[in-house]
UniProtKB/TrEMBL annotation:
<protein>
    <recommendedName>
        <fullName>BioF2-like acetyltransferase domain-containing protein</fullName>
    </recommendedName>
</protein>
<dbReference type="InterPro" id="IPR038740">
    <property type="entry name" value="BioF2-like_GNAT_dom"/>
</dbReference>
<dbReference type="InterPro" id="IPR016181">
    <property type="entry name" value="Acyl_CoA_acyltransferase"/>
</dbReference>
<feature type="domain" description="BioF2-like acetyltransferase">
    <location>
        <begin position="180"/>
        <end position="300"/>
    </location>
</feature>
<dbReference type="Pfam" id="PF13480">
    <property type="entry name" value="Acetyltransf_6"/>
</dbReference>
Length: 376
């Protein structure tokens, strides 16, 4: 059910444009870290993954000062329902959706975001926000604003995913959170792998090495099941270009954290993380599946644990993993609760009626489905 008019396409922002300089300044004072909406990753995504021009960047301001940035798209469907809505932009390689908001201006920024959506003739149905931290600054500000404005707000999904946040050393953390039997097995695998040749763990430090590392990562990921299923970054030129551009921009901004394990000089496991503020986000992992008997994916995560815990600038790392992930959940003890919200939009005239109807209809169908499921 299409409940609003078609949106007019916005003008894409060119690389190096003035808005991106403003975003960079905003990112330095963000209330909630989000590497995916920091200008290096967001800019790369806009340049390579949003070629249809349908991503809008909503900016919140306090006078002349930028206090918030929310990338949104208009969707023709909400889940399985043919009901249009506005959603924060979560492309295939974006795993956290918290808007970039200046610390201390959280409610003010959300007041501006919502007001602009209320007034926008292209905004459909309601606002669907996904990928938020349930305990984060954005969730708290959004709830406070909805209470203040008596605006409809509904939590529609939540799950926990692994997170690394500890003051322990890597060795102490490993001993405290991983079963002794598993630790013993990992030591055995490390020794067996070393029997095949020289094993070296490296952290990317030189800008000149970046193109080679990106090429190795793309090839390694494509060599496994992701390549076979067509989901590896290298399977789509735009995805590969996004990865290279994001890595380059993040390295130049001091936000790229990339690891590899080499066997006789050849990469057998790699991991790319993106930093923002005191936090970091584990983006992608790739490993040689022909060496699966040595668990190279686990070995690169152990190397990552040491790299993170040995770096005083990284306070925490979000795994960005699916819930109940069998590997990372067994290694990292902390959890982050990720939520989705549905927020009512208002407006004037027919738009107000249509938006209220869309919000009520989807909530009603969802409640009915839950009721029927509970009666089974």
């Amino acid at each position: 059910m299409d409940m609003a008019s078609h949106p007019s396409p916005p003008v894409p922002l060119p690389p190096g444009s003035k808005p991106r300089a403003r975003w960079a300044a905003l990112a330095k004072e963000a209330a909630e870290a989000n590497a995916f909406y920091a200008p290096d990753m967001l800019g790369a995504a806009i340049d390579h993954l949003a070629t249809d021009g349908h991503v809008r960047q909503i900016e919140a301001r306090a006078g002349d000062h930028l206090i918030g940035l929310l990338p949104v798209v208009v969707q023709s469907r909400h889940g399985r329902l043919p009901v249009g809505c506005v959603s924060n932009w979560m492309h295939d390689h974006c795993f956290f959706g918290a808007p970039m908001i200046r610390e201390g201006q959280e409610v003010a920024a959300w007041r501006s975001f919502i007001a602009q959506l209320d007034d926008a003739p292209w905004a459909r149905g309601f606002l669907h926000m996904e990928g938020l931290d349930a305990a984060g600054a954005n969730a708290a500000a959004l709830e406070a604003l909805c209470v203040e404005q008596r605006r409809g707000r509904r939590e529609i999904h939540r799950y926990d995913r692994a997170m690394l946040r500890s003051d322990l050393s890597a060795d102490a953390y490993w001993d405290a959170n991983v079963r002794s039997k598993k630790r013993k097995e990992i030591r055995r695998l490390q020794k067996r792998l070393a029997e095949l040749g020289t094993v070296e763990t490296r952290l990317l430090t030189e800008r000149a090495d970046l193109p080679h590392w990106c090429a190795d990562f793309l090839a390694l990921e494509a060599s496994g099941w992701k390549g076979q299923e067509g989901t590896a970054l290298a399977c789509k030129p735009a995805d590969a270009a996004f990865f290279r551009a994001a890595c380059a921009a993040a390295f130049d901004a001091g936000r790229l954290h990339m690891l590899r394990i080499d066997l006789e000089g050849r990469a057998i496991a790699m991991l790319a993380n993106f930093r923002h503020g005191a936090g970091a986000f584990s983006f992608k992992i790739a490993f040689d599946e022909t060496l699966g008997r040595f668990s190279p994916g686990v070995l690169i995560e152990i190397a990552n644990l040491h790299a993170v815990q040995d770096d005083p600038a990284i306070v925490w790392m979000d795994s960005c993993a699916a819930p109940d992930h069998p590997m990372i959940d067994s290694l990292w003890a902390e959890r982050r609760t990720i939520v989705q919200y549905r927020i009512a939009l208002r407006g004037t005239g027919l738009a107000r009626v249509q938006r209220a109807a869309a919000f009520a209809l989807v909530n009603g169908l969802e409640s009915l489905a839950s009721l029927l499921k509970g009666q089974r």
